[in-house]
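Researcher: Here's a chain I'd like modeled. Treat it as a single chain, no partners, no ligands.
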Amino acid sequence: MPICVKLDAYSRFRPVYRDGECFYRSFIFSYLDQVLDREETHEEHRLLDTIKRVSTQHTNLGWTSSGFRRSYKAFKKLIKRVMGWKRQGSYRKEKLLKFFSTCDRTEDSEKNTLELIFP
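Model: Modeled as a single isolated chain. Structure tokens:
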């Protein structure tokens, strides 16, 4: 049964390629879109502190998967980019959109490891 959505009820619509990871990319895009609306960087620092703690726990447990380390580095780099976009002021949401638009079609490890962050 098809689902009908009245698109004019939304301020923006972003089509997403169905590839098995689209929910996770859509979730983090929407989340970071809201983070960019905030002037302060408390949420970004909270996220960086959290992933640092998780990384330390991961290491302490003897888990040495390269996938986790790669995801950790990619997420950390993305959050730092978001913080940089906020410092630049204008066009920050456009930069987020551009980042995620190319994410759907590239093999760039920083972008593709987003799927590993929220398995």
